[in-house]
Amino acid sequence: MRWVSGLFCAFGLSVADAFLPAQPHITTHHVQHHASRRLAVVRAATGSGDKKTLERVLIRQGDESDLSKIRLVLASQLMNPLFLQAERFVCAEMDGRLIGFGQVRPLDGGGGSFEVASLFVDEAERGKGIGSAIVRRLLERHGAKGTLYLLTLSKTTPFWERFGFRLVGSDEDASLPALLRLERSAGTLVAGGLLGQTVVVMTKDE
């Protein structure tokens, strides 16, 4: 089930949303709404940024004291709040508040393949360059430790291309981590049904 929970974390859904019968308080409309809000984080981060806001933002390593807030945020956004490790996160803090975060997590037990995931910025602070600042710090910290991948919707690829990511070609499919291929297949079904979008894999060459 690990790959399933990881996938629905990426697309703003929970395992329960995907596999259990619809409940009165959880409708397709609600799932679409939350998925759209998650995608808005990436779209908003493509802006040039707000210099005055960024000057007030501290981009730092995540620690154990952040995890309770991160879990609450992920759960509220219908993302997977399980199996989190503080040291994998980069956090954005402003005026003592945690306003954003993202992580790089291993895809194969740390054998050389990693995934950029869980990118989030508070709704009121989007479009100010905070998401981009988090991604930059994640990439700087990761360095050349191993191959980086991410799953995203095809319409958001321009954002990630700014950071050196490129689409994975069909001739590279066989070399992708098995977990990533499974996540992409299931994600295509979910995103295609809810948003009419295609899920793609991107990678950053070393």
TrEMBL record:
Residues 1-18 form the signal peptide. InterPro entries: Acyl_CoA_acyltransferase, Bact_Acetyltransf, GNAT_dom. Pfam families: Acetyltransf_1. One of its GO terms (molecular function) is acyltransferase activity, transferring groups other than amino-acyl groups. The keyword Transferase applies. Keywords: Acyltransferase, Signal, Transferase. Gene3D superfamilies: 3.40.630.30. It comes from the Eukaryota. Residues 57-183 form the N-acetyltransferase domain. This is N-acetyltransferase domain-containing protein. It comes from Vitrella brassicaformis (strain CCMP3155). The lineage of its organism: Eukaryota, Sar, Alveolata, Colpodellida, Vitrellaceae.
